Amino acid sequence: MAADTETREAQRAILRVIATGVGEFGIYADGRPSTVQVLSDMLLLSRAARQALVDGEHFEWMPAGQVDVSLIASHNRTGKVDLRPGAAREVALGNTIAFVALQSGARITDLLRGRVSVHTALDHYSPPLRDHVSRALGRMRRPTATLQAVTMSVVDPAARAAKLPAVLWPEWTSRLAPRRLDAEIAGGALAAAVVFVGTRLTHGSAITLLDPAAQGRQVSHVMRSLGRNGPEADTIRAIARLVAFLDETSTPIDFARRRVIDYSGILPRDEWHEICRTANVLPGGDRRWQTARAHLYALLSGNRVARAPFAQEAGFPAFAEVRSFRDGLPEVVSRALMDTAAAFLKAFRVDEPVAWMPHLELAGVVADAPMSSGNEWPQARPARAVVKPTRAVAAYSAGQSVREIAFEHGVARQTVSRVLEEVGVKIRIGRRRANIDVEWLRRRYIDERRTIPEIAAEVGVTMTTINRHLEAAGIPRRARGSASRATAIRVDPRAGDSPLLRRILVGQDATQRAERFLIVARHDTMTAAATELGVTLSILANQMRRIGVDAGGPLIQRAFRGQPLTLTELGVEAHNELSRAFGLSEVEDPARAAEGSQ
With 0-12 CB in 10 A as exposed, 13-18 as middle and 19+ as buried, what is 357? Predict the structure, then answer.
């Protein structure tokens, strides 16, 4: 489609701005903003112009050929026009009206009033347009001008700066700073804002009193953003109240002195590891140690962490890491670091508290309710935390051995030894001697077939000690494993002195096999006995075969070609002795084991 005169003129103006790098028409005649700012201004005004046409609002200064609403299609879906529509005709229409509007501030106000939020950020627009937007939104004064106009009884910026950290206290920053900004930059800018309240200082000169290496433009950027969002609406008033308090109060910390202390020797690595060892937490690598040093540096000096004298060392953290470290400190580590910081100040003869800040209520801000810190780090030795030093010392002084104390706490002997050594208790050297009679040991181990753990528990020594005494006495030890357990080597007491029963009633499940043998003897077939017991025929047959092996020969002659099951001569003898040992009343209904047990 053919472009009209106004559209071609707007296009030429845009090309001139791109070619020359500055804007020199309309409201830009004196300001001469950059290309990016001019194009950002036109983008904002173009959308406002198209939205005005969609809303049915036509201004008399609009070119007659630029009021065709049919060219605008980006609002069909939501009712609001797009910032960057896809149709070239809609773009041309909006840019043409924006170019005409830029010839006069009153036209800009017409377009923006009611179509731009009072909380709109203006950082990317040109200074001339910012002033016109402020008028359209009712903003008549910048935050900096408002603070500088505050009337103070006594204004000494240097004295006020000495009462402030270079980065405002984190609690104040989190409540007053714009949420979208870096917390450290915002904290530095807010501290500078406190300094220049009621003065004619510039942003740069104010922040120099706190941090000579900081950039004044960072303060300017933060100050332009103050008060745009609801949570930040009272920031200006809060800063003014803080200034009044600082000017009228003698504060306990001289931050001007704190800022110039040499912090290069704060928290050596060995001291950090000692703190973690005492608190029984993992110290981590060099990164965590450097973060702990940076935390103490920021706490004591109030400076940006990047100004630390060890900031160039490997593993030095960023400000966000330091803040995360501070918020996640376990209580016991936090107290230890505060003690370290106090000792550091004392070494420099600084008689001040480690940290201090005015209460947030001074600014009319409700502070968050304090919450108990539930932060924890992994324990370096989890078992170490189980042993309480006072209890361990009392038990050890009462005559208990390290082994006995460790057994009571369920930890290793070495853990108890470390706890006692840490509190200065000297450990008794040497093993507990046990006087063990060789004949007694032989009787217990060979005749009574006691196990090594049972003998060790009876004497009150370790199994290693019993093994050593067996070896010294020349007593051969049984093979290790399940065959050496008490249930496998102990003869049932009901066997008495009977040689036959002492062979049968020994080993795992020996009693069960004997009871089932007595039941089998009452039946004509093995199948009938298996049915009564509720086990398979193969299991019962295996058990009868095993009891025969233990007795020294077969006990049962199984049913064959219609002949009932009979007992062998050895079987009759075993039956009679087992009946006397168990008693008939006990075998009439013996307890049945699970089918899978053999």
Answer: middle
